[in-house]
Design goal:
single chain; mainly beta; Immunoglobulin-like; Lipocalin; eleven-stranded antiparallel beta sheet; five-stranded mixed beta sheet; 1 helix; 20 strands
Length: 233
Amino acid sequence: MRTSSVTAFSSIFMLCLVAVDAQAQASLSGRLTAAESPLTDCTVSLYRIEAGQAKYVENIVTRTDTGGGYRFASLLPGMYIFLCACGGQRVFQGRLGVQPGENTKDISLADPFSGRWKLNPSKSNMGTFAAVREEVREYQRAGSKITMSWRRIRRDGKQEEGSSDLICDGREHTTSGQQITCRFVGPDTVEGYQKPPLSYYVRKVAGNMLSISTFSDAIHTRLTSTLVFDRAP
């Protein structure tokens, strides 16, 4: 009987340890997006810090999936430095308290393209757009849909305008008689193609400047034009 009591006590003690350990475990998941579009293959890092420590005591790294999601399945509760980087560019950094159980942290970056942009021909390689003298573009977002409208004046004085809708999810969408793709490859850069005629583009914002480069090949070696726009009021 005594042996059985000791065995029973040991079993209960081990169960309590398991319960305490399970309770102390934590997980963290979330989604990284730019303008409501997923940022894929970005680095998400956690640096665990402890009170009184001058440096972090643990570093854990994962990457976002095709939907911009990430997950750390097993963490020690505590305080962490939370850092996200895309293409080597740091896009978010802050402190994050992780509690026992499930934790969620979504990072949603603003749309860098929204607003009005005016063509700067002196900075541009007009290429296939050599007939354009002036152009103003405007990007407006409603949920996951971006509407790009444009007005231009050709060198012969003819005025043109139009608009098209984009969804930057990496899939092909039909708009205004064209098949267009768009995907974020960084917090301020999108790329894709449009057809017909088939052309590839990279659209990037740096400060108050927007550049749109077009290529005739998928690996972006044959440049056909680079339009540079300044942000307009």
